[in-house]
Amino acid sequence: MKTVPRMTLTQFLIEERRRFPESGGDFNSLLLNVALVCKRIARTVAAGELGAATGSASVINVQGEEQKMLDIISNDFFIEGNHWGGYLAGMVSEEMELPYQIPSGYRQGRYLLAFDPLDGSSNIDVNVTVGSIFSVLRAPASDRPVTEEDFYQPGTEQVAAGYAIYGPTTMFMLTVGRGVHGFTLCPQLGEFMLTHGDLQVPADTHEFAINASNSRFWEDPVRRYVDECLAGKTGVRGKDFNMRWIASMVAEAHRILMRGGVFLYPRDSKDPAKAGRLRLLYEANPIGFLMEQAGGAASTGYQSVMQVMPTAIHQRIGLIFGSKNEVELIERYHNTPRRDDEPNPLFKQCGLFREPA
Ligand code: F6P
């Protein structure tokens, strides 16, 4: 029997490029080099304790978080793999305080790259799935050094976004604005092969993901939503829900792309100085773009996350994404708060929180 050969990522991008005969190939070079960087990170992550890259770097990054050796190494791979190519005007990373300037010896390009080199890296030491997330924007037409303001573009301006997931298999998930496509790394060929074309997130789900240890800090609409899920068949939702929390957003986003679900890391009152936990430019926007392209949704709770105008490169934001009907329901709860005379299911018999005596 003759089998149809699978398409490689390179082939896929060349096919896409045929639709833009005027394009010079920079966009494809950028995406292929990002994919190459991800393969390099995948190998380093997979070496685990046998490699030389585990453990803490004993450094606190610009986010106030402890950097792992692998955070730093993955960041270096992104820089080394992309700064020479002539297609970038600058880069922003979770691990760097300021935008990275393209060194003077290299050509200044037409795109901007924002990335989280190793998302979920607190899971590294326990061998749980992690990943890299990236977002591509257009750079302003100018030869001057890139500024933070150049990155202040809403998610709707992204021209590509994706992530690589380093799990039992390594996958590269990509949107260039025409659906979401998944490529599995073939260990024999060292190539990403198209295995999951045109993914669709089911509009309904019975699975939600939230860090429930933060429940005392949640705003009422989030508590209401979670409590209604927990009430299951006997509550207003009339069905039982499952809960998941991996603490690695890439892994949660991947599960949701594959089978639906909803993820919440909402704005809360834990640290009033922070508008949320996740970062807009290199976490929320790329995941938002992927979700929307797969028929799902992504919201701050109050509005589509992709419409938020950034005001800082490391800006944090509340993020809720996944199955469209659930995200829309949660947004409705935020935008039309309960009236005072409405019964609050949180304080009912089956509620999370009992009415104080
Ligand atoms: O940087 C973000 C991240 O590691 C996400 O991947 C994950 O969803 C979240 O932080 C986990 O946060 P927490 O430890 O509060 O559950």
Quick gist of this model?
The chain has helices at residues 9-17, 26-47, 69-82, 220-231, 249-259, 280-293, 324-335; strands at 56-60, 66-68, 88-93, 100-101, 111-119, 130-138, 160-166, 170-175, 181-186, 191-196, 207-210, 242-244, 262-265, 278-279, 297-299, 316-317, 319-322. By secondary structure, the chain is an alpha+beta fold. It has two domains: 9-196, Fructose-1,6-Bisphosphatase, Chain A, domain 1 (2-Layer Sandwich), CATH 3.30.540; 207-347, 3-Layer(aba) Sandwich (D-Maltodextrin-Binding Protein, domain 2), CATH 3.40.190.80.
CATH architecture of the largest domain, please? Answer: 2-Layer Sandwich
Class based on secondary structure composition and strand pairing: alpha+beta
What small-molecule ligands were found?
6-O-phosphono-beta-D-fructofuranose
H and E string: HHEEHEEEEEEEEEHEHEEHEEEH
Distance between the termini: 73 Å
**CATH homologous superfamily grouping of the largest domain:** Fructose-1,6-Bisphosphatase, subunit A, domain 1
What is the C-alpha radius of gyration, as a whole number of Å? 21 Å
The overall number of domains is: 2
Q: What's the CATH topology label of the largest domain?
A: Fructose-1,6-Bisphosphatase, Chain A, domain 1
Q: What order do the strands of the largest sheet run in, or round the barrel if closed?
A: 4-3-5-6-7-8-9-10
What kind of sheet is the major sheet?
8 strands, mixed
Average per-residue pLDDT, rounded, comes to 92
CATH class of the largest domain equals Alpha Beta
Q: What is the percent of helical residues?
A: 25-40%
Could you name the ranges where pLDDT drops below 50 across 5 or more consecutive residues?
Answer: 346-357
Kindly state the number of beta strands: 17
Strand content: 15-25%
